[in-house]
């Protein structure tokens, strides 16, 4: 694909399908766990199982691909949904894992114009409603986009442990996932950016494009540090309790 083709807007999404790609090959060192954080137990299941369940419950996805480290067989006995495929082609970086996963999607039947939703395995609070919100917002967009949260806190610049400046926050957003772009432009953008790019939107931006920002409307933080596990578990337990609670007479009516 030429640079011109990359910058041409897609005016219709009629023929495009939607695929999910979950890079799941990281070590999760910052989480302080004894093994990869995506496999740590959370609310009775491995963390990544909650992530996969949300995507499996999302209507409109042609398939879900999980990219794990070479030789990783952890997910083999997890009773995954039929729509979930596992490929042990994970690389040394997120970009490498996503790039390898895009190649596997081609073998599963994905086409260059299809949409790919790349999502962090450790964002286990994602919901089908949030995923569909992004799909609906970006399906007819010329570029694609990502879930992101407007910055609520005052943003400081630190130098040697002290505040050196306060930044304007009104135009600042916290990037989240999924990040949704068409397969061929995303593949080309990642190849051009190299292994150091930290998210797909950054690679797309480096091509001179401006991804759409879509607020998730609900918790979607990434489990990164030890304290995050307890908070994520509390949210998941609360959701489970809400689903198990009997309907009130008004709800039943």
UniProtKB/TrEMBL annotation:
Transmembrane segments: none
Feature type site, description Transition state stabilizer: 30, 37
Reaction catalyzed: 2-C-methyl-D-erythritol 4-phosphate + CTP + H(+) = 4-CDP-2-C-methyl-D-erythritol + diphosphate
Molecular-function GO term, any one: 2-C-methyl-D-erythritol 4-phosphate cytidylyltransferase activity
Pathway in which the depicted protein is active: Isoprenoid biosynthesis; isopentenyl diphosphate biosynthesis via DXP pathway; isopentenyl diphosphate from 1-deoxy-D-xylulose 5-phosphate: step 2/6
Keywords (A to Z) from UniProt: Isoprene biosynthesis, Nucleotidyltransferase, Transferase
Record site feature (Positions MEP for the nucleophilic attack), residues: 169, 222
Gene3D superfamilies (UniProt xref): Spore Coat Polysaccharide Biosynthesis Protein SpsA, Chain A (3.90.550.10)
UniProt cross-references to Pfam families, sorted A to Z: IspD
Keyword Transferase part of the UniProt annotation: yes
Stored InterPro entries: IspD (IPR001228), IspD/TarI (IPR034683), IspD/TarI_cytidylyltransf_bact (IPR050088), ISPD_synthase_CS (IPR018294), Nucleotide-diphossugar_trans (IPR029044)
Record protein name field: 2-C-methyl-D-erythritol 4-phosphate cytidylyltransferase
Species: Curvibacter cyanobacteriorum
Lineage, broadest ranks: Bacteria, Pseudomonadati, Pseudomonadota, Betaproteobacteria, Burkholderiales
């Amino acid at each position: 694909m030429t640079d011109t083709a990359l910058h041409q807007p897609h005016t219709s999404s009629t023929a495009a399908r939607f695929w999910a790609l979950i890079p799941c090959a990281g070590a999760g060192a910052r989480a302080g766990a004894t093994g990869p954080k995506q496999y740590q137990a959370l609310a009775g299941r491995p963390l990544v199982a909650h992530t996969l369940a949300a995507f499996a419950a999302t209507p409109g996805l042609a398939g879900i691909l999980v990219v794990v480290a070479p030789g990783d067989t952890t997910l083999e006995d997890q009773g995954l949904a039929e729509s979930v495929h596992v490929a042990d082609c994970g690389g040394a970086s997120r970009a490498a894992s996503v790039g390898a996963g895009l190649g596997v999607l081609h073998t599963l039947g994905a086409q260059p114009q299809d949409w790919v939703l790349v999502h962090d395995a450790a964002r286990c609070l994602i919901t089908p409603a949030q995923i569909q919100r992004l799909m609906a917002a970006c399906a007819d967009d010329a570029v694609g986009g990502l879930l992101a949260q407007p910055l609520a806190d005052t943003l400081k610049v630190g130098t040697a442990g002290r505040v050196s400046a306060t930044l304007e926050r009104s135009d600042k957003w916290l990037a989240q996932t999924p990040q949704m772009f068409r397969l061929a432009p995303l593949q080309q953008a990642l190849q051009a950016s190299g292994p150091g790019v930290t998210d797909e939107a950054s690679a797309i931006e480096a091509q001179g494009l401006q991804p759409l920002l879509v607020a998730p409307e609900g918790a979607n933080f990434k489990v990164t540090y030890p304290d995050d596990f307890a908070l994520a578990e509390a949210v998941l337990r609360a959701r489970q309790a809400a689903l198990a609670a009997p309907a009130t007479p008004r709800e039943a009516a």
